[in-house]
């Protein structure tokens, strides 16, 4: 019988009757699988290579350690109470399952302030607006003004191909004038939207608005290039409202860890995954040596670049999928400053400064506003920029973040204390940020991992269309739990609709 | 000597030497004046008509009372911990002085989530998109798509009047394609930006996007009318980041109240303000009868509609200004619900739903996300809409909020508990939301109130270009304190630049 699963509550029927499930990886997907299977009467065991849970759901605090494959283990040295989220730092409001788990696990949330018109654009290059910081609001409103002016004129002069009735054309023009802040002549002449050079205030302080930037200057300086498109606001996943866990995103992992602590083995590095006739055999090594355990079934949540180097007897389809699906190169650096100069001096509270250099982005913290000290994320980059920066030593990454960052915030020189950087594609037990599919790998390889390989199921953000998001881990965990449970109880569970009976 | 005043710290020199200043009104302006003058060695006394401080900086909680001039006093009956801000509910990030006082007074702040793409547009009227709720993101992204498509085509076909070089035109087209989410043929064909009708998820849940609304339907349904312009995002004052005080905006007033408690007299309704040869004489009445006190100077922060009905011997210019400067008609209703259905059912966390009916706006709370109960603001309206609704009884206002609100949220029927409404232009001791200037009143009457009338200074948001904002109260308070202190110490203090020496 096909049962429909509710959106958030997860009330599967039937019992797992003590079936033994070995779960590989204590990230969000693995711990959620264990948590949910435990509710259903399964006997689970989680093997985690690290001495911590959470995987990529990880906040760097004083004492946090990370190991990149070509470097000595690094230890963070931040002040108490300060942290940054090395992995996921944002929860979209429509990721209701993530929010459901926050609620179920008692993790308080707060707004993650993704959109901030007071941050900067910084373009290295030529052009009169290059090599200096420009407030985001200036570019947003100037460009919006020029674009609406052009279109309004075009419609006005009957130069439009579109079939607009005269009445509709008039409505569109009225809209454009409001949208762009045009004057009565349908010209963009700057407005308070782009900010003041002298703020309005008491008495005769009426406020003073600067002239707009020239469109040609904006273009020449690269500020209409893809680095500065409004993706941070428009993408479905980044549209407000966004959230974060209060006290660090790792609070979600820690809350799950509490639920699964009795069945969790840390420091257990899996070396072999073998389907055997009546179940699975897992070999792992820890400080004491090599161990072998058997289970009825296994859920493997290891990132594919890690799984790729583990011995297994999976089908050739599965084996190829593991090898061929790509992962994002990405890195972040957390920088502790003596003073929240971005708030005090520049009125920047949260949000993102965008650059076209290797920094790509500077993230200002969305917590402890008005506090004394703070950690900002000095770069958050991807692809070849992340590769280039990841190849540097920790010291040189810090130097890069300081050198490029002080062009925007000269306060760096006086206020900087210390940093900690993570290059995810070089990080042991991860070796990648998140799964990145091409049309080809999604078509040719992804489906192989959606089915269990005999007694081994695969789960994690890489087995969803929610790559990079915690929601992917949660949705995948539920999908696999439903699928596995359906097989055990011999009912078909509709989560997802395509869940196989096994 | 002209001294420049720092942006936030307020370090005036010299002593007030015990000069006696009577401050009328314990709103933010009055209490800030007292707080700052006290630091300088003045002897202040604050007279407040109400039995509470804060004025319009007021959060309605269980037991809060309000008196509208034509109604019996109403008492709020909300659950413990729930509140709504009847007055100011938002702090723009660039109101650094407001944030400075939050810091100085130890009032924690949190993000006020003003922009939320998941709220609704609701247009009453004709057209296929009328009389039903449409997600904000659908209209934003569809309109953005159509506008950029039109302009890209126009440029492509050389129909543009603007002098764009060929290279720049190409750059603009590339920008428009990204900005609007256009396809390779420069056509808007919907995208994930407008949301999914089936969310992406695990396994084969690739997600399904609906067709865009037709531009003609959007226009016909009034969704490009001024009621739905993007003002909530674009206006300088409403651009992210925005804040609120944790636990209610009245926490700012309460923190100030603590500082001035010893010099505060509540329940003191001023009836006469008289400049006398060596100072001022203030007559007020309280429960015990009429009292008269003298001071060296007075700072009057009473809203002009109130001051207009108080006896005084001000100059005719001042008297006319008091009578002629207009105030906003505005009202809000707080509605307590058993369940935060807007979060649970509709994934709306904070932000604003816009309507073209008398509700104008529904504000969802930006605090206690994921909690059980909540208060939303069922309408926040202005001008003739506020007048119409304000003229209703409390019961009929609630009925209106329910009748119009359930068209958007049918959950109202099952989940509603109780309401409390405030009509500011009918509220005793306010009789208006905030000063609203025309070009004429700003030119002809405003200047008269920027100077002291003999020994009486005027302060409040109405004496700034920051009308309606708490920043106006703070900036005006500092301006007047600097001006008054400059007169007493016979130095000229540059706050504001136009501060008179008296």
From TrEMBL, chains A, B:
Coiled coil: none annotated. It catalyses: L-tryptophan + O2 = indole-3-acetamide + CO2 + H2O. Signal peptide: none annotated. One of its GO terms (biological process) is auxin biosynthetic process. The keyword RNA-binding does not apply. Pathway: Plant hormone metabolism; auxin biosynthesis. It comes from the Bacteria. Keywords: Auxin biosynthesis. Its EC number is 1.13.12.3. One of its GO terms (molecular function) is L-amino-acid oxidase activity. The keyword Zinc does not apply. Residues 28-482 form the Amine oxidase domain. It is an enzyme of class 1 (oxidoreductase). InterPro entries: Amino_oxidase, FAD/NAD-bd_sf, Flavin_monoamine_oxidase. Belongs to the tryptophan 2-monooxygenase family. This is Tryptophan 2-monooxygenase. It comes from Mucilaginibacter agri.
């Amino acid at each position: 019988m096909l049962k429909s699963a509710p959106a958030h509550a997860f009330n599967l029927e039937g019992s797992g009757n003590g079936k033994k499930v070995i779960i590989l990886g204590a990230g969000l997907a693995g711990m959620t699988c264990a948590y949910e299977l435990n509710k259903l009467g399964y006997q689970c065991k989680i093997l985690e290579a690290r001495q911590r849970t959470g995987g990529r759901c990880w906040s760097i605090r004083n004492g946090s350690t990370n190991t990149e494959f070509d470097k000595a283990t690094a230890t963070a040295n931040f002040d108490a109470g300060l942290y940054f989220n090395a992995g996921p730092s944002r929860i979209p409001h429509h990721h209701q399952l993530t929010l459901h788990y926050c609620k179920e696990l008692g993790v308080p949330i707060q707004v993650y302030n993704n959109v901030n018109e007071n941050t900067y654009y910084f373009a290295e290059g030529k052009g009169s607006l290059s090599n200096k910081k420009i407030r985001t609001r200036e570019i947003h409103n100037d460009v919006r003004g020029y674009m609406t002016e052009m279109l309004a004129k075009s419609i006005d002069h009957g130069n439009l191909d579109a079939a607009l009735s005269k009445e509709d054309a008039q409505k569109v023009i009225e809209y454009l004038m409001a949208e762009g802040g045009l004057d009565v002549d349908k010209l963009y002449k700057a407005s308070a939207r782009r900010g003041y050079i002298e703020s309005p205030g008491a008495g005769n302080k009426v406020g003073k608005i600067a002239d707009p930037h020239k469109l040609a200057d904006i273009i020449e300086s690269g500020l209409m290039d893809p680095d500065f498109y409004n993706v941070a606001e428009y993408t479905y996943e980044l549209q407000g409202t966004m959230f974060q866990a209060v006290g660090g995103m790792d609070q979600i992992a820690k809350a799950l860890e509490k639920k699964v602590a009795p069945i969790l083995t840390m420091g257990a590095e899996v070396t072999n995954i073998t389907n055997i006739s009546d179940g699975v055999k897992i070999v792992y090594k820890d400080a004491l040596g090599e161990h072998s355990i058997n289970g009825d079934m296994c859920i493997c949540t290891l990132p594919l670049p890690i799984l790729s180097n583990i011995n297994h007897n999976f089908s050739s389809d599965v084996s190829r999928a593991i090898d061929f699906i790509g992962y994002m190169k990405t890195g972040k650096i957390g920088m502790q400053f003596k003073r929240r100069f971005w708030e005090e001096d520049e009125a920047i509270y949260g949000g993102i400064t965008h650059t076209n250099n290797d920094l790509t982005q500077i993230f200002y913290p969305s917590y402890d506003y008005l506090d004394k000290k703070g950690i900002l994320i000095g770069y958050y980059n991807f692809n070849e920029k992340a590769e280039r920066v990841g190849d540097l030593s920790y010291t040189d990454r810090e130097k890069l973040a300081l050198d490029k960052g002080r062009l925007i915030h000269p306060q760096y020189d006086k206020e900087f204390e210390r940093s900690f950087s993570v290059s995810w594609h070089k990080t042991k037990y991860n070796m990648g940020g998140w799964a990145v599919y091409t049309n080809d790998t999604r078509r040719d390889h992804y489906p192989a991992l959606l089915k269990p390989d005999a007694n081994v199921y695969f789960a994690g953000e890489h087995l969803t269309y929610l790559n990079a998001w915690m929601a992917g881990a949660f949705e995948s965990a539920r999908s696999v739990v439903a699928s596995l449970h359906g097989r055990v109880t011999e009912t078909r569970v509709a989560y997802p609709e395509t869940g196989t009976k096994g």
